[in-house]
Write a structure and sequence with these properties.
With about 375 residues, the protein is α+β, with helices and mostly antiparallel strands. Helices cover about 50% and strands about 15% of the residues.
Length: about 375
């Protein structure tokens, strides 16, 4: 059971980290479209990169309640999706290896990432298809003791500087469906990998890449699980990603509320503070109402996961929660900009940044439409 004091201590540390090591530099990082690699080491020193990973690999077992408290607090304090996406990209890049990889491969890859020395990324999406994972075209054919990989991946978070890439490939070219897909871990310095940076609406301090694999030779020992088992690995991996995105969205929504409330208390119009106008107070309460409903739902879904309840109905809950949380973020960003007025249109406010980052949260990890369809299927509709 997670102790309340553990959560309080963690949240205090996260707030202090953002206040001293992130906030003074965030706008410069946004302009540079990257943050220093040293930040991974600092997060590792605080024990954050290894939360939820086995001690044998350098991690610290942690409940979803504790992990989500960190995600929520960092998101609320920083208001930066780019920071969150890249600093914790290993949490979508490593789980396939953790859950399905050989012990030797886990020991080779995971510890250095959890120490903040290496960066891990997940490469699934391709230029010709997003959520339709079964249609991926990147191929890997076995040549003696190595796979030869050819293809492209796009929208890859931390893709420009990842030292380890967990890549979905098609190992059975004759099978165009789900069973022909496998997963490989590919060292980032392997010859034949070309990386191109992508310019984005938001998440500016997170590097995002278009990757090309041209005759990339990968030792067969870097296969994760069995050949043909990749689709199941990918689908399982999405659940944790969507949970994290829900708590991130909740934190960003509350960040917008915090900034809007502070502005409304200070800004004077017609001789009164904005917050003294009923219409502004009602906007704030509309934001608060959505935030609290999202918080209650997210906590309930996390509690079920900690209790081992991760069946089909839970998966449906995760999908719908992800939609609800990102819609809450969208609403709060919109209302926050409205309350800030002209200042809400200016770079430098958290609300303006979050407003630009709403859509990637609603699309990443599975678009709203896909989430609804997946949830309905999980519920047998």
């Amino acid at each position: 059971m997670t102790d309340v004091s553990d959560i309080t201590h963690l949240q205090d540390s996260a707030q202090r980290f953002v206040r001293t090591e992130v906030a003074p530099h965030l706008e410069a990082w946004e302009a540079a479209q990257a943050f220093p690699r040293s930040l991974y080491g600092r997060a590792a020193d605080l024990g954050w990169l290894g939360m939820g990973y086995p001690q044998a690999l350098g991690g610290t077992p942690a409940s979803w309640k504790l992990r989500s408290a960190l995600t929520y607090t960092l998101a609320r304090s920083s208001g930066s999706g780019g920071l969150m996406a890249s600093l914790f990209s290993h949490n979508i890049g490593l789980p396939p290896l953790l859950n399905w990889g050989s012990v030797s491969l886990q020991n080779e890859v995971i510890p250095s990432v959890l120490r903040g020395e290496k960066i891990a990324a997940l490469a699934i999406t391709e230029p010709g298809g997003g959520t339709d994972v079964a249609a991926l075209r990147t191929t890997a054919h076995l040549d003696e003791d190595s796979y030869i990989v050819n293809g492209e991946k796009v929208f890859i978070t931390s893709g420009m500087r990842a030292d380890w890439l967990t890549v979905a490939v098609r190992t059975d070219s004759a099978n165009k469906g789900r069973s022909g897909i496998s997963m490989l871990v590919i060292p980032g310095d392997t010859p034949g990998i070309t990386r191109s940076p992508l310019n984005k609406m938001g998440w500016h301090c997170s590097d995002t890449a278009h990757l090309r694999f041209d005759g990339v030779r990968v030792p067969a020992r870097f296969l994760v699980g069995e050949e043909g088992g990749g689709f199941k690995i990918i689908m399982t991996n999405f659940n944790a990603e969507r949970m994290s995105m829900a708590f991130m969205a909740l934190g960003f929504a509350e960040c917008c509320y915090d900034e809007a409330l502070s502005w409304a208390q200070q800004r004077k119009t017609f001789g009164s503070a904005l917050v003294e106008h009923q219409v502004v107070r009602h906007k704030l309460m509309d934001m608060k109402m959505r935030i609290e409903s999202t918080r209650a739902w997210a906590d309930a879904v996390a509690q079920r996961s900690d209790a081992g309840d991760e069946g089909a109905e839970w998966v449906a809950q995760v999908c719908l929660l992800k939609n609800h949380a990102t819609q809450t973020m969208q609403f709060c960003a919109d209302q926050g900009v409205q309350i800030l007025g002209g200042m809400g249109f200016m770079r430098g406010t958290a609300t303006e940044r979050i407003y630009r980052e709403v859509k990637v949260m609603m699309i990443g990890g599975g678009a709203e439409e896909i989430m609804k369809e997946l949830a309905s299927r999980q519920l047998g509709l």
